[in-house]
Every structure is written in C-alpha cells, then in structure tokens.
From TrEMBL:
Ranges of residues in domain Thiaminase-2/PQQC: 8-210
Name by which UniProt lists this protein: Aminopyrimidine aminohydrolase
Physiological role: Catalyzes an amino-pyrimidine hydrolysis reaction at the C5' of the pyrimidine moiety of thiamine compounds, a reaction that is part of a thiamine salvage pathway.
Alphabetical keyword list: Hydrolase, Thiamine biosynthesis
Gene designation: tenA
Pfam family, one: TENA_THI-4
Pathway it works in: Cofactor biosynthesis; thiamine diphosphate biosynthesis
Family: Belongs to the TenA family.
C-alpha cells in the first residue's frame, strides 16, 4: 500500500468530520451565510501569504532541483491563482481586507511556518499536504453535489478543477517518494504532521462558521 493511502486511512475520520461540518454542508447547498464566507475569505487571504511562504521554505530546503521548481511553482500559485479567486469574492461581496489572524488561522500558519523551517523537509512536505489534498477532496465532493446556482461556484470549480488536481497528484507522488527514504521516526513525524494539518483544516472552517474571535 502506498504511504499516502495509509495516510488517507488515518485521516479519514477527520475528513468525514469536515464533510459533516455545517460550513461544508451549507457551502454545498449554496446557503452559507455571506458573513460566514466573508470571515473565511478574509482569513484565507492572510493564510495564503504564509502558506506561500511555507512552500518557499520547502523550495529552499529541497534536495532536488526538480522539487525546488515544483515548490516555487506552488508558492507562486498560492498567491497568484488563489488570490485571483479571492479577489472575485472581495469585489462581489464588497469585503474589506482583514489584518488580524483569528485563532485557527494563527495556529495553522504558525504551525506550517515552524514545521517547514524547523523539521526535516519530508515532515514539512507532509504538513502542507492536507492543504492541497483535503481541498481537492472537499472541492470534488461539493462539485458532485452542489446546486447549479451556487454563489460559491467559482470556489468549488477551482478546487475540483483539473489544474488543482494535477498539483495534488504531484504532491502525493512527492510525499510517497520522500517516505520511501525516510526512517521510521521520520515517517511517524510525517503521519503526525498530516494529522495535525487536517485537524487545523477543520478548525479553519469551524472558526469561520462560529465567527470565532479572540476571547480577550
Ligand atoms: C485554510 C486553507 N487550506 C488550504 C487551502 C488550499 N490551498 C486554502 N486556500 N485555505
């Protein structure tokens, strides 16, 4: 069994919890409140900058030039492609940019930055993997069920689309390659990183759904 197949088995309860979350259910039905989406997209704009920074760190730390190229491309796309999707919504709903990260966004971005800079490159790659993988799976799941008049159609099409699928396949292949040369402790670290980032994906949607702010 591929290492990434094992990973998917391990995180499938977390993935199921994401699919059962009100945010995803309402996004699918097209009934997600605009304020909820607003919060999400404001936080996601902040997230993407650090996500791109984490990918740039992986590029700098890659052992292979081809991997460097991949991470440079992913880092650029995180800002160019996903930001253009965001701009569509910022304009459509008149959303003001936010400058303060709320708890889940803060935890997730700091976790990604710390892991991609301080852990081994293989563990760093595992930490960013759910950012790609879970979005493709959730995007595809929603795409297959979403109503056609869904106001969030652009978001759904981006993550269920062929370009994003190609990137996710490259990430999965790379993760499997790195796992082949990793020792048991490093593989355990990779599994833990995938679990943690998957939890943080759930938290990111949950914060938007509950409009979480810093309590003090
Ligand atoms: C929180 C989060 N995770 C993942 C993605 C997809 N790169 C995103 N835009 N936002």
């Amino acid at each position: 069994m591929r290492f990434t197949e094992q990973l998917w088995q391990e995180i499938s309860p977390l993935y199921d919890a994401i699919l059962q979350h009100g945010f995803v259910k309402k996004l699918t039905a097209g009934s997600l409140a605009i304020e909820t989406f607003q919060y999400y997209i404001q936080q996601d704009a902040l997230y993407l900058v650090d996500f791109s920074r984490a990918l740039s760190q992986l590029a700098a730390r890659s052992a292979q030039p081809d991997e460097m190229l991949l991470f440079c491309e992913f880092a650029q796309n995180a800002i160019r492609v996903e930001r253009s999707l965001h701009e569509t919504y910022f304009t459509r709903y008149n959303i003001e940019p936010q400058t303060e990260k709320m708890p889940a966004c803060f935890a997730y971005t700091n976790y990604l930055l710390a892991t991609t800079s301080l852990q081994s490159p293989a563990v760093g790659v595992a930490a960013v993997l759910p950012c790609f993988w879970i979005y493709r799976e959730v995007g595809t799941y929603i795409y297959q069920r979403a109503v056609s008049e869904n106001p969030y159609r652009d978001w759904i099409n981006t993550y269920a689309g062929p370009d994003f699928d190609r990137v996710v396949t490259q990430m999965l292949d790379l993760t499997d390659r790195l796992a082949e040369t990793a020792g048991p402790a490093e593989r355990a670290g990779m599994r833990e990183a995938v679990r943690l980032s998957s939890r943080l994906e759930w938290s990111f949607w949950n914060d938007a759904y509950t409009q979480t702010r810093w309590p003090v």
